[in-house]
Write a structure and sequence with these properties.
two-stranded antiparallel ribbon, mainly alpha, two-stranded antiparallel sheet, single chain, globular, 4 strands, 2% strand, 525 residues
Length: 525
């Protein structure tokens, strides 16, 4: 059972106990009247908390999913390095909590108020937020509860299929696009901007975000006969037009909860390290002879000045101190509070939800599969180039202790045919997907893991016969629950589902120890 219904159980008990009280007692016990606070909340004030969790929920759950995708690994082989489950724990359940509880009824209320007041811009943003929630949850959990999600009349909840969830995502985004295109009624950027600290009430940027979310959702169908690359491209072309449209969430950095979850002061990633896979994409191994200038701005070298990633099967303590990779903050151990970080692991960096470079790689993959390699190469080049600029911009957010990538460095890297092919015919699927992985490193944990799953971790690039993701390490030791299989989903949030909703889980096989290895519907033909 989900968290909101549990709260309502408690409320129902309180109401039942009060039925026999006198009228005077009822006045005293009226929990729905707060003399010290407003009875209703302005629609724009709902936005900030929701946007905060849209940006940071992946950071919380990324502590596990980043190990599945091998963006990061821990100091020694962990449950998630071994593709094990989030079993009997709420670890990996933050986004579940965000969608069903933090947003939950609040999102419904915001949309109802916005509709009643004809604030089409806020209503449109509400449809985007709801679609985004279902998309993110389904991509990491598979089956989720949609139809009965906020049904106050039941205590047991049935799960819906992934197919239905994806259909609902598209339906919601269709509505969002309609409302965000309206300029009548009480549409007001200044009013919306008081709560919208991502786009400051700019509905045109929200409209682009909606198209970007649509493109990402449709790209997940790449293994299905219904996959339509032309439609993916069309939505990308109506989405973010440059880095200026990136969806970014800033942190005031005034108290613990207002600092970046991935920053050094909160120290949530102290025992994590870049992997051999990640470093191999940037040190000239996968792109021969092309040392990526982003590597020294996204990562820190070992004490001996060599950039290293950690083998997922190796304990960092088995290495000489001078050869141990640094953690994502750029230190061998936990740094003192308020220390400077690196890239997206800094206290006051702007956390991305969606970027122009990410969507250019979505377009490049779709065009490649469509057979339009000229368009694919152009989008791919845009993706690499714009991500270099993105790295520079994020390293300025909190005055991190790294130098900017110079125009000369950038030009030389883009001129290297190992990175940017001389002709469209030389572009490969592996180039597109690995450069997308670099662009999504340390923030788009859900999407990066989805890409690995869409290519079943070890699928071959038809043009080269080599792995689409070269260097990805299949664990030599898988978790004992796995029965020799790799992870394809997180288990639903333990405290709500496995404690309160076992009946619903049993119907979808969610009680099986190896449920996390069940392939997602969206990645199967």
């Amino acid at each position: 059972m989900m968290t909101i219904p549990m709260k309502r159980r408690l409320l129902a008990l309180a109401v039942a106990g009060a039925v026999g009280l006198t009228a005077s007692c009822q006045d005293f016990l009226d929990v729905n009247t707060n003399p010290n606070g407003p009875e209703t909340v302005a629609a724009n004030l709902y936005l900030s908390p929701m946007l905060h969790w849209m940006a940071t929920g992946q950071q919380w759950d990324g502590r596990g999913t980043a190990q599945y995708s091998q963006m990061l690994t821990q100091s020694a082989l962990s449950t998630y390095d071994a593709h094990g489950p989030n079993y009997n724990t709420d670890f990996g359940g933050q986004q579940w909590r965000d969608v069903y509880w933090t947003n939950g009824q609040n999102l419904i209320d915001m949309m109802n108020i916005a509709e009643a007041e004809k604030r089409w811009d806020i209503l449109g943003a509400g449809y985007v937020i709801k679609a985004w929630g279902w998309l993110q949850l389904s991509s990491i959990h598979g089956n989720i509860i949609v139809k009965e999600a906020f049904n106050q009349g039941t205590f047991d909840f049935n799960y819906d299929s992934e197919e239905y969830a994806y259909q609902e995502v598209q339906r919601l985004l269709d509505s969002a696009i309609v409302y965000l295109g309206k300029t009548d009624g009480a549409v007001d950027a200044t009013y919306m901007g008081r709560g919208d600290k991502m786009y400051n009430g700019d509905r045109t940027k929200w409209l682009k975000f909606a198209h970007g979310a649509y493109a990402i959702a449709l790209s997940h169908y790449s293994n299905k006969s219904s996959y339509d690359p032309a439609k993916v491209i069309a939505h990308v072309d109506q989405s973010l037009a440059s880095n200026a449209d990136d969806a970014l969430w800033g942190f005031p950095n005034t108290s613990n909860d207002d600092r970046n979850f991935q920053g050094p002061t909160r120290s949530n990633y102290t025992s994590y390290y870049p992997t051999l896979f990640m470093v191999g994409l940037m040190n000239g191994t996968v792109f021969p002879g092309a040392v990526d200038p982003r590597m020294s701005r996204m990562l820190a070298p070992s004490v001996d000045s060599v950039y290293r990633g950690l083998d997922i099967a190796q304990s960092i303590f088995s290495l000489p101190a001078s050869q141990r990779p640094m953690n994502p903050f750029g230190y061998p151990t936990a740094p003192p509070p308020n220390s400077p970080g690196i890239y997206l692991f800094a206290d006051q960096v702007k956390a991305p939800l969606m970027t122009y470079s990410q969507l250019q790689f979505v377009k490049a993959e779709a065009a490649y599969k469509k057979g339009d390699k000229a368009t694919a190469l152009a989008a791919y080049t845009n993706g690499v180039s714009s991500h270099i600029d993105f790295v520079n911009a994020r390293n300025r957010d909190d005055n991190q202790h790294v130098t900017q990538i110079s125009a000369t460095e950038k030009a030389a890297f883009l001129a290297n045919p190992a990175v940017i092919p001389a002709s469209p015919a030389q572009l490969t699927l592996s180039m597109i997907m690995t450069q997308k992985f670099i662009a999504e490193w340390a923030w788009a944990y859900n999407e990066a893991w989805m890409d690995l799953k869409r290519y079943h971790y070890v699928d071959k690039d038809p043009a080269t016969g080599e792995a689409v993701f070269p260097g990805y390490q299949i664990p030599t030791t898988l978790h004992s629950f796995n029965n020799g299989k790799l992870a394809y989903r997180l288990r639903p949030r333990y405290n709500s589902e496995y404690v309160w909703n076992e009946k619903g889980l049993d119907k979808i096989g969610g009680l099986a120890l190896d449920y996390h290895t069940k392939p997602l519907w969206i990645v199967t033909p």
